[in-house]
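Hey, can you fold this?
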Amino acid sequence: MPFLRQLASSASEERLGKLIEERMKEGANKEAIDRRIWDLFGEMWAVMFTDLSGFSRNVEKFGIVHFLQTIHESHKLFVPCIDDHDGILLKTEGDSMLIIFRKPFKAISCAVELQKICRKTNQGKAPEDEVLLCLGIGYGRILRIGDVDVFGREVNSAAKLGEDTAKPYEILLTELAAKIAKETMGLESEPLEDAPVKGFRLKYEI
């Protein structure tokens, strides 16, 4: 199975690379090539970006080993929940994770559950040992390149909301994700002010 996964990802990357090379040629019909790329790789997915709050400050004060321990603990806490909600963990970078979900309501439900896990885990802990999660979720048509990476406006927006904007215990949503949260789950949200992208703060009980 690992071999099949690697083969599929490489094939997608190779095909995309060939199309990009065609697009770079003088006189290329870029609109037609773009349509081919979107036809091949365009899919509807929910995208979740996670970030842990206070890392730079904690690394400076408590050292890199403490940093690595917190990341390790967060993965042990989060990955089973992500699996239970049919999320696909595409990649990790430092204290951040990129996860995709075919069903947006599962991404939102997973986000709420992750924050509840953090709240329960943090009870009685010293502040420097708390796992403080920030979350951003987008939903829309994106370019998915095998199990390697994803690209698109919703990907960028979810990253800005989760990594740059969200505070501990917050779940921030793009416009369509917020609409789905209300229509399918009955969860309200409020517009963000002074955010780098248009976003909404989910209202939920923790």
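Oh, and this one too while you're at it.
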Amino acid sequence: MKPIAIWSLAATLSLLQGCAATRSGAERELGVKAEANYATVNVFYATDRKSTQSGDIRLRFGGERGELKYGTAKVSIPRNHKMGALEAPSVWKFQFRADPEKHVVLLDVETLDASKYFQAVATQIKRSTTKSAFVFVHGYNVTFEDAARRTAQISYDLGFDGVPVFYSWPSQGDVAKYTFDESNIAWSTANLERFLGEFAENSDADKIYLIGHSMGTRAMTQAYVSLLQSRPGLKKKFVEVILAAPDIDADVFKRDIAPAMLAGEGKITLYASSQDIALKASKTVHGYPRAGDAAAGIVVVNGVESIDATSMSTDFLNHSYFAGNRSIISDIFYIVHNGFRAQNRAGLEAVLTPRAAAVYWRFKK
């Protein structure tokens, strides 16, 4: 029997208005600065990239390994922003310079010592109504600048009332340096675990959402499992783990990672697609399917809500659909704002596996 969604189709169609209203409230409560034609979103970061000492804020942190650092970044969101878009200059439109009134632009980066950082986070948490935060861990081929831009876009599109945070590991930001990124994501795992522990203890957040993308899910899942094993008292802080296009060996995920993650108190949502070209390439490199690649069948684990997002497309590689597609942003909105599980989210429908022993979900067409 098909589960009945709590929210009606009309509620889904009105989500944009709801997000806009939530964004307006968040801007008032959390101090998102409103300019004439763009908003400025303040996001927090932690990074183990080495500082370049560059005067150009876009290049402040490069691809070399460094010590764990903390700070804030300011990012513009144009008032004509489209949900899911990461607006940038286009030579096809004769745009050769980033414009805050038209594009999502990194405007400023500030480094803070740990004490001031967590004090600032706690202050913003107290001003929010949800007492929540999300920590986004980006994937392969992503610069610090683009990680900041993506985090601000996600926060803005979700109308997020809490504190948006991103962890930026030393990805080379170069499509040809996949193996470099693999080495660095493994190296960053211990630093990420340390940061998550510090954040859970010092942020005053009651609810923490973890959002990992692509290769970033490797460090995030390992850090999460290790943290819960060493400090089980922090389990209640992490309410949801969202794995978007995870570039993890599917068999290893099912056998080792998922069971260990399910020992925590947080729910787990996994988005996968059979049209993800980047993960198809990863399968070629590694020899085995990835957890985010649904081409050979979506990963189904009891206790993990797997969502087939094959019908959702965004960029050329169909790899950034989790943040670049309106329907998926809407789905995450229900998770973050309402705590709805898949059976209660209007845009999804249940699919029985061939053996009818388990269920996964897909977006309605």
